[in-house]
Amino acid sequence: MFTKGLHALDWVVIVASLFGSLYVGAIFARKQKTIGAYFAANRSIPSWAVGMSILATLISSVTFLEDDFELATLSEGPYQLAYTAPVIGDSVTLKVQAVDASGNIGVSDPVVLPLIDDPHATVTGRVVDMMDQPVAGASVEMAGVSDQTDQEGRFTLADLPTLDPEAGYAVSATALFGAQPMKFTTFGADGSLTSRIVMPSLNE
After folding, report:
1. 89-115 pLDDT, tens per residue?
2. What contacts 177, CB < 8 A, 6 or more positions away?
3. Element (H, E) at 173
4. In CATH, what number is assigned to the domain containing residue 108?
5. Residue 127 within a domain
6. How many structural domains is the chain composed of?
7. Residues 101 and 126 both lie in one domain
8. Do strands 145-148 and 139-142 pair parallel, antiparallel, or not at all (unpaired)?
9. 73, 110: one domain
10. 144 and 183 together in one domain
11. What is the mean pLDDT of the chain?
């Protein structure tokens, strides 16, 4: 049967804890004569205790912010984030917020990045056959932009999104060899704005 309030044994435990704390404090207070002794314990703290203290204050999470909106929160290192800037606006402000295991929060200084419009690009090139002869009337397409080759096999694809030199690009050409349509795609990874497409023969 449970009753409300504290019993005699409860009070004994509470009083004993208080006097025990005062006794331990009084003993250690006699050994601390300077501020250095108080904060650094005379450099007598064992390494494992220092390690546990550092561990308790390690970063528990890092949050990446864009214009004060959360992009991502990482709880394990390395604290890195691949970021793609928005296509609308004049600038973007980035900040990083870190929280340690005790709940303390730190925020970095804001970094303001100006945004510019995509200048777009123009890709030119030729479509030839295996004999290095121009393929006229071939349909060439890249990133939704298309053109038809002239008598010299040349084409121009204008107003394309800016190319990423590392990601490369792909240009597709489709032409009729007799009554058989042939499509061939060439890939480039050097960021060049010119392309030469060699159409394979029907026998390959």
Report:
1. 889 999 999 888 778 888 999 999 998
2. 199, 201, 202
3. strand 169-177
4. 2.60.40.10
5. yes
6. 3
7. no
8. antiparallel
9. yes
10. yes
11. 76
User: Does some domain include residue 176?
Assistant: yes
- Domain limits at 72? 58-114
Residue 51 within a domain: no
Task: Kindly state the percentage of the chain with pLDDT values over 70.
Answer: 71
Q: Are residues 13 and 80 in the same domain?
A: no
Question: Looking at residue 28, what is its pLDDT?
Answer: 74
Residues 97/63, Cβ–Cβ less than 8 Å: yes
Residue type, 49: A
- Looking at the structure, tell me whether residues 99 and 31 fall in a common domain: no
Count of other CB atoms within 10 angstroms of residue 94: 17
What token pair was written down for 74?
């990482």
* pLDDT tens digits, 22-55: 888 887 777 767 766 666 666 777 777 777 666 6
DSSP sequence for 66-124: ETTEEEEEESSSS--------SSSSEEEEEEEEEETT--EEEPPPEEEE------EEEE
Cα gap 114→59, rounded to integer Å:
30
pLDDT (average), residues 74-97? 85
Please state, in angstroms and rounded to a whole number, the distance separating the CA atoms of residues 203 and 45. Answer: 81
- 3 within domain boundaries: no
The rounded percent of the chain whose pLDDT value lies above 90 is 14
Distance between CA atoms of residues 93 and 112, nearest Å = 4
**Comparing C-alpha atoms, which of 152, 162, 123 is closest to residue 140?**
123
Contact 85/44 with Cβ under 8 angstroms?
Answer: no
